[in-house]
Amino acid sequence: MLEDFLPLVTRPARYINNEINSVHKDLSKVKSKVCLFFPDTYEIGMSHLGLRILYHILNGREDTACERVFSPWTDYEHRLRISGKPLASLESNLPLLQFDIIGITLQYELSYTNILAGLELAGIPLHAKDRVDNHPVLIAGGPCAINPEPLSDFMDAFFIGDAEEAIHELVELRQKIKNRINFLRALSECEGFYVPAFSLANVRRRIIRNLESAAYPANPMLPLMKPVHDRVTVEVARGCIHGCRFCQAGMIYRPYRERSAERIKSLLQESLRCTGYDELSLASLSSGDHSNIQPLMLELAEQYEGQCISISLPSLRVGTLTPEMINAIANTRKTGFTLAPEAGTERLRRVINKPVSDHELMDCAKTIFAHGWNVLKLYFMIGLPTETKEDLDGIIRLTNDLFTLGKRLSKRHVQLNISVSTFVPKPHTPFQWAAQATLDEIRIKQQYLEKHLKKRGITIKTHSSEASLLEGIFARGDRALGKVIEEAVRCGCRFDGWTECFDFKKWIEAFQKCGFNISDYASRTFRKDDQLPWDYIQSGVTPEFLQSEYKRALATEITENCRINCSGCGLGCNEGGTFSLGIPNTSEVQYEIRKPVTATHRQGVSPKGSRLSNRIRLKYSKIGRIRFLSHLDLMTTFQRAIVRAGIPILFSQGFNPHPKVAFGPALSVGMESEAEYLDMEIGHFSDQRKIAQILNTTLPEGIRILEFRIIPLNTPSLSNSICRYVYEVDIPPPYSHGVEASIRSFLSQPAVMVEKNGNWKDIKPAIESITPVMDSTHTKVEIVLQNKHGISARLHDIIENLFSVGPEESALFTIRRTAVYINDHGSTTSPLDIL
């Protein structure tokens, strides 16, 4: 990514690189260069566990370098297009055109336009047929690859299934066969790969049979910018023993496979150690189905009690959530609780094969509220097959009953957050033949729910009906839709999963230009004997099983989970998994298990209730690309670095404790500094003289501790005492002529008026001095600001007025804060010189 653009784009931290545990190799010394392309923003892509696993596997090979690229936001894309520069990787800024393989994640149908836009930006021909030997090979994989047809004109190949083993075969085959056509022909004969130009027979999904020994990042990357899911995540199981008929993941990730409790604890411990995270997540499609989930939860809760680490179980079925588990989670730092009834009535839950009774839901919520939670999130779905008005009324009734229960049991204000999505029929599920509800039907249902759930303490959020319509179209689409996607990209469609970017009118225009009726695609019903566009993909679950489940759904018949009764889905496992498919036989698996933490606190966290404390004031610099990190992300970066350094930070008391780290006034994004300060309160530390040295080993490039002092506990905070700021500003050549005259003219003004939020104020009293500083290479000015009579000034406001430039031009001025001063008994002094 290009540093020249960073001052001019929103959220430049998406592009700054050099995260903790990222890998940078000498590309001249490897045989294969692979770039993983996630077609969404950095914060979405860095939350994706699959991308992190593949990055770890590929960089574990000495002969391979793996780098990443994410879809640039629209402003960055605009800069790329007008500059003529190509889209490049994050790690080395290598143009995508120069990689051997580009692996594309197909996580969500509404990211398809981002893929084509990314290829355009990279200078790679959109159509596979137009690529030649010196072009990279494009391989797409992920859940949406289960129906490759809409993208088949653009991809060289698709991978179907679990990629941990197949990724090695792909790299080695590419190293062996340099000719593009011969390579793709050979790839088409490998299990799990679909090559549109050659694959004629059915393609069988690739399955990792032993999750216990499957590769996993030993040192997971720690993003500098906060991702959507900002925590340590360990996949405790893959697949699902239940057969929810709407759930594509529950079908295409079968059979069910587990990691052992010991392996899970080992991975969590190592990940917490090398990241400094304060939240861990046990991820799977239904974490509560793990055969040892309750004892595992109790052990984790005991191990991390009092250490300000929260435990998250993001996918829990109501029937698996016991009071003992809720109690164990309650003893850690609390996060929110989520329940997914999906449907408002027991009848409709039987249709979708999620037989949870209202009584079970109420009992579960009762335990949650009784253990101190006051915020509960509920997931519902509308537009399900056989849905009636009574089912919508059931959502309203159940929500109101839960709200009443919460108010009765909780000691604080109760908040219910209701998320209502639209049912989208997906390939390889029992509902793949069903029609999707029309736009008008969904809008009427959404309005009905919003009208009857409008009250204080209940928030309802409905998903865009138009976006769901498109999702359904491309989920069950055929190859003809490729030209619609291409036309939508020409119309400007990008980030269609983002509300602020989604433009349904452009999609209607694209469909019309291609001669298609947008409603016909989504609302069509397939007959049992129809040839489905994705029929040649063998997911492992047979069409006969799916048809049987569809019939049972219409008859409101329940299919028991795999552990109770094998339903004969076609995968051939027994009782929810055997030793090779399911519950691991740990005696046959070799891996390193670290000794569990036996101390009363983890490294870098002082024991709860500790009375010994010191207050440390640190001076640090923020130089280079890291200057584009926001103040909030900088705070998080420091807190995690402190934990990784083993410095026993103290935490506040209360319901949601926070580390006792306090920063000085925020530095604007894009400014460098030689004089930033923070205070932290720590427990007993054996050698405080080495705090700076140790902490510098855990901070990212561009941030360095320069000095530190032990200060009295009652010292006024930095934010309240810093009152004077010194900046050095490099003046770009177009504005460097006549600087002295510009300064004299500016300072002679009786007032400097700036506008903020419709109000005008005079910032002249906050300007202490502006002085030209000449050297042999640059024209600079030193600007000293002060907080005076409650008036403060933004440096960019001064630059814009001083040089008569706009915000975009002022962003190109290089600014460095060189000093700050505090008010100490009427005089100004360095924050480290505390009396």
Summarize the structure.
Helix content is 30%, strand content 19%. The protein is an alpha/beta fold. The longest helix is centred in the middle third of the chain and has 21 residues, at 389-409.
Mean pLDDT, to the nearest integer, reads 90
Name of the CATH class of the largest domain: Alpha Beta
Number of helices: 26
Quick one: how many beta strands?
28
Notes on the structure:
With 835 residues, the protein is α/β, with parallel strands linked by helices. The chain has five domains: 3-200, Cobalamin-binding domain (Rossmann fold), CATH 3.40.50.280; 232-463 and 526-552, Alpha-Beta Horseshoe (pyruvate-formate lyase- activating enzyme); 464-518, no CATH class; 614-715, Pseudouridine synthase I, catalytic domain, N-terminal subdomain (Alpha-Beta Plaits, 2-Layer Sandwich); 720-829, Alpha-Beta Plaits. 30% of the residues lie in helices and 19% in strands. Strands 18, 19, 20, 21, 22, 25, 26, 27 and 28 form a nine-stranded mixed sheet that branches. Strand 25 (767-774) and strand 26 (779-786) form a beta hairpin. The longest helix has 21 residues, at 389-409. The chain is globular. It starts with 31 loop residues before the first strand and ends in a 6-residue tail after the last strand. The relative contact order is 0.09.
List the helices and strands and how they pair.
Elements: E1 32-38, H1 42-45, H2 49-59, E2 64-70, H3 74-83, E3 101-105, H4 112-122, E4 137-141, E5 157-159, H5 166-176, H6 180-187, E6 193-194, E7 203-204, E8 232-235, E9 237-238, H7 248-252, E10 257-258, H8 261-275, E11 279-283, H9 293-304, E12 310-312, H10 323-330, E13 337-342, H11 346-351, H12 358-370, E14 375-382, H13 389-409, E15 415-422, H14 439-452, E16 458-462, H15 465-475, H16 482-490, H17 504-513, H18 518-523, E17 537-538, H19 543-554, E18 614-622, H20 631-644, E19 661-663, E20 672-682, H21 691-696, E21 703-711, H22 718-721, E22 722-731, H23 733-736, H24 739-747, E23 753-756, E24 759-762, E25 767-774, E26 779-786, H25 795-803, H26 807-810, E27 814-824, E28 827-829
Parallel strand pairs: 1-2, 1-3, 3-4, 4-5, 7-17, 8-11, 11-12, 13-14, 14-15, 15-16, 20-27
Antiparallel strand pairs: 5-6, 9-10, 18-20, 18-21, 19-20, 22-26, 22-27, 23-24, 25-26, 27-28
